[in-house]
Amino acid sequence: MSGDVAANLATVRNKIGEAAERSGRTAEAVRLVLVTKTVAAERVRQAVRAGQIDLGENKVQEGRRKADGLAGETIRWSMIGHLQSNKVKDVLRFAAEVQSLDRLSLATALEKRLQHLGQGLDVLVQVNTSNEASKYGLAPDEVPAFLKALQAFDALRPRGFMTLARFTPDVAEVRRCFRVLRSIRDKAVLDAPQGAALAGLSMGMSGDYEVAIEEGATIVRVGQAVFGPRPLPDSYYWPDLAMTAGGS
């Protein structure tokens, strides 16, 4: 992999387009959220200057610092990692979207702060499609009741779902995870109160985003394929969240 961020970004975009074509869609049907965790702001700026607008962060404090460091650039930040309710005030200072809504207590905290600010927020419901205890997210059978409960939150705009496939070289198992989320989405669009607004599918990271697109992803979360491998594993940076980060 080249160390040239702009070149790597172009390669990823080309692969997104090719995978979208294989799934009968255009490249424009898939939104790339570039994951910037552990990447210095100036290196991220290279991607922004190459036309990348959507950026994603896993940790609130790092996201705030990076947003401050990139102030003045045209950027839309997404929170893609597990979000603690006591960090809601901070996350809303930079994020326009939260992809990791996984419990009503978090919805309540977000709603309270958003009402205070007079703002709305796009959210994705995180689902644990791999049934791993190490991952956050609702169990698939919990989703319908959760979507009904979300009707009570006026400031939250549910736009679909997010998942992390099982980390495995078994492509069939990875596809299974993505197909579970697509099935949940398809059913929700027909049956849930929010209906067609739930069309979004955020799934796929650096190692599996092409497979995710083939299975219907409308959002992919890619970092290392553009910025290169991190110097140390995720477990070094976040030992309590080694397998729960929202994108890579």
From TrEMBL:
Listed InterPro entries: Ala_racemase_N, PLP-binding_barrel, PyrdxlP_homeostasis
Domain annotation Alanine racemase N-terminal: ranges: 9-231
Question: Which spans are transmembrane here?
Answer: none
* Cofactor(s) for this UniProt protein: pyridoxal 5'-phosphate
Q: Record's superkingdom?
A: Bacteria
Keywords, A to Z, come to: Pyridoxal phosphate
Q: Which GO terms describe its molecular function?
A: pyridoxal phosphate binding
Key word Lyase present:
no
**Positions bearing N6-(pyridoxal phosphate)lysine:** K37
Summarizing the function annotation, the protein's role is: Pyridoxal 5'-phosphate (PLP)-binding protein, which is involved in PLP homeostasis.
Tell me the protein family, please: Belongs to the pyridoxal phosphate-binding protein YggS/PROSC family.
Q: Which HAMAP family match?
A: PLP_homeostasis
**Entry protein name:** Pyridoxal phosphate homeostasis protein
Organism, as annotated: Aminobacter aganoensis
Q: What is the lineage of its organism?
A: Bacteria, Pseudomonadati, Pseudomonadota, Alphaproteobacteria, Hyphomicrobiales
